Amino acid sequence: MSVAPMTIPVGDRFARELPELAVKWRAEPAPDPRLLVLNEPLAADLGLDADWLQTPDGLQFLTGTLIPDGAAPVAQAYAGHQFGGFVPRLGDGRALLIGELTTTGGELRDLHLKGSGATPFARGGDGLAAVGPMLREYVISEAMHALGIPTTRSLAVVATGRTVTRETLLPGAVLARVARSHLRVGTFQYAATTGDRDLLRRLADHAISRHHPGAADADNPYVALFEAVIAVQAALVAQWMLVGFVHGVMNTDNTTISGETIDYGPCAFMEAYDPETVFSSIDSWGRYSYGNQPSIAGWNLARFAETLLPLFADDQDQAIAIAQDRLEGFSARFQHALTSGMQAKIGLTGEPAEQAPLMNELLEQLAASHVDFTSFFRHLGRAARGDTEPARGLFLDLAAFDGWLSRWRALQPDPELMDRVNPVYIPRNHLVEEALSAATDGELRPLQQLLVAVTAPYDERPGLERYAEPAPEDFGKYRTFCGT
Fold first, then answer.
1. Are residues 170 and 241 both part of a single domain?
2. What are the φ and ψ backbone dihedral angles of 374, each rounded to 5 degrees?
3. How far apart are CA 414 and CA 385, in angstroms?
4. Which percentage of the chain shows pLDDT scores above 90?
5. Residues with catalytic roles
6. Is pLDDT above 70 for 46?
7. Cα 174 from Cα 95, distance rounded (Å)
8. Which of 324, 305, 343 is nearest to 421 (CA)?
9. Which of 161, 179, 197 finishes a domain?
10. Residue in 418, 466, 462, 460 with CA at minimum distance from that of residue 446
11. Which residues constitute the domain of residue 95?
């Protein structure tokens, strides 16, 4: 059931409870707003009228210049380690938290804009965004949601009618996205740098209430909060690894307390399996490569622990001991999630640890033969049904793979299980670029067709064969950019 436009019940809980972390601000008006894409199912879940969102008033709402009664738009403050270097003041430089909506299921969701204009955190930037990067986030975040991976979601992308200056002149856009919240490790880092213990405690209580309410009943709720964030981050990064996702910019300000994926700047999906895969143009050292993601997540969680030390215990040595003890659990949680997930990808059940050597050998062979990660596992599902040739044809050392295949088939893998967890379609890099280039020129059909494929990733459908194929050889080495 939808509601009348100006009676949309948008809350101001974050701004009200944590005013020290919020700067009241307004979006820059969009000169000529035009809807590019609208997520109608998500709108319905948020109680928003999709037809109204496409009206002039609706477009102003989606670009932040028409504010419902009760809303209090703010730019959020946070700090962050960016590529290992600490920046004490980052914040929403080109973004606004409009407020909180409640889903039809009674859950709270942030409504947040990107590209809505410069804020006091802009650090000299123009605060704007271009059509291509905002549509990239729309496509990939919705693909991640369809893959079952916790993520911020995209409600709409609206072209603003304003030109944005980057390396060239580009059409501008605003992304409206939705999240369980935008609380980050960087939010806690910012609060900790103020030295205000009461602010830190209120922030932690806010995070517990919104995301990990069970922690409130623990002997020490803040230790329990830390444990809960460790758990959701371990599960999240394992899910990334299982579909070949490379985030590209795992700074602490992009590490959420909720365990959602956030910030789809230089992200991409790996094709040929290689743990050293890097896409980001600014990651020249491979800090955020595919294979480094688990260790970086652990490092980011250590930074989170540092902010919480005053809440763990009054004695600093005791607080550090608590933090170290809990951090040791991250690796085990991650490995369990990754091994269990890989076990499902090859269709096996039983004790995951017993099958780990078989899984590791397979990954070594995938790397040695530069096998496409996504399509291989669908071919392997066919091998579980008896048709081994599509999978065999991908390997250079056929004898080695045949040996592995024989041992694997003897364990009677379940092809139905494999098809449930191995996607047919991911946002292939060449197809994303094709769609974004066309959309920048005003042609939206490639984007719409790509969304058809990646928002139902496990359902193989006729006519979508090119969306399941790796990039052609002439596509070259892929590089992504932050889009700022």
1. no
2. -75, -50
3. 9
4. 91
5. 253
6. yes
7. 9
8. 343
9. 179
10. 466
11. 5-179
